[in-house]
Amino acid sequence: MFGFNSCKKCKDEDPSARIMNNGTQKASVQIKTSGGSTVNINNVDPGTSSPSSSYAPGEVVFTITVANIEYIETVVMLDCYDYDIAIDANNNITTTAIDRN
């Protein structure tokens, strides 16, 4: 008998985030986890993307800074998700969770 878990590509891997900066200013994000860890992705130039950074699952607070303006978003992140933080040409921010399975 086969379980449904055998089809999963991702097995208990920490979530990750990256910045895709299509805006006009450098962007940074601070990721605070409910476990007390902090991950910083700093000074991502316009027209570039940062590498992905992993962090512990749970409640995560993203503090995104673009042109000295802070945007704060709280998200519950589970294992096996990637999180894209996209900044458009007008410096508007959208976030997308992507299931690795």
SSE blueprint and pairings:
Layout (H helix, E strand, L loop, with lengths): L15 E6 L5 E7 L4 E7 L3 E2 L3 E2 L3 E9 L2 E9 L3 E7 L5 E7 L2
Parallel strand pairs: 1-8
Antiparallel strand pairs: 1-4, 1-5, 2-3, 2-6, 6-7, 8-9
Short characterization:
The chain is mainly beta and 101 residues long. Helix content is 0%, strand content 55%.
Report the portion of residues in β strands.
over 45%
Report the uncertain regions: none
End-to-end Cα distance, whole Å, is 21 Å
- Number of helix segments? 0
**Could you report the average pLDDT, rounded to the nearest whole number?**
88
Radius of gyration: 15 Å
Described by the principal axes of the CA atoms, the overall outline is globular
Task: Characterize the main sheet.
Answer: 5 strands, mixed
Describe the protein.
The protein is mainly beta and 101 residues long. Helix content is 0%, strand content 55%. It has no helices and 9 strands. The two termini are 21 Å apart.
